[in-house]
Amino acid sequence: MKKGKGCLTVIGILIVIGIIGGMLGDKNTEKEAQKNLATQSEESSVSKSNETTEENKDIVKSGQYKVGQDIKPGEYKVFSENNSVAYIESSKDSTGNMDSIIFNDNIQNTSYIIVNDGNYLKLTGCYAIPVEKAKKFEGDKIISGMYKVGVDIPGGEYKVISDGNASYFEVNTKPHDINAIVTNENFSDSRFITVSDGQYLKLSNCTAEKVK
Description:
This protein starts with a helix and ends with a strand. Strand 10 (about 165-170) and strand 11 form a beta hairpin. It has helices spanning about 5-10, 15-20, 30-35, 50-55, and strands at about 65, 75-80, 85-90, 100-110, 110-115, 120-125, 125-130, 145-150, 155-160, 165-170, 180-185, 190-195, 200-205, 205-210. It has a four-stranded antiparallel beta sheet, with helices on one face. Strands 8-13-10-11 form a four-stranded antiparallel beta sheet, covered by helices on one side. A three-stranded antiparallel beta sheet has the order 5-2-7, with no helix packed on it. The protein folds into two domains: about 1-135, no CATH class; about 135-210. The protein is built from four helices and 14 strands. It is mainly β. Mean pLDDT is about 85; it is low at about 5-25 and about 40-55.
């Protein structure tokens, strides 16, 4: 399946999981989020409490925000709380109508978003950090989530392996934009894909490993 069919398969369950995600909460979320900032305050800092406050300004917690008023426009890296399934939504107004939605998605682990001035951003069960302040992926295993090629993972060829469930991969040049999809597919076994710097790789119910 190419050019968005895989995306359409997912959209039908977004609202339900979005509601479930709203019940997620964790006292350790803020501490977890600070660990995903690219730079962290040293424990020995004299003004650590003030520095922590400054760091918190870079963390956009679960909630709804007006871009340009509550948060700055631009690119953000999104982290799900406790690696649970979370929900993101960008809309052009606050009517709540389905046709006002620019994009929405259920995410697990990490994702990327680009939001523009005047839009609205809703985060449920997750938090966002400006991309220039966000920690890069450092793990050994590339699991479900979205990765920026050349930042989180190197460009090149990858083998994508299903975990046995309904698996999906997507390569795009702009996250959550059906017109920016380079290739995508629902599958239940394994596939080979090639990605380039500047692209994004999205994985759902599968893992990826670099081909040597």
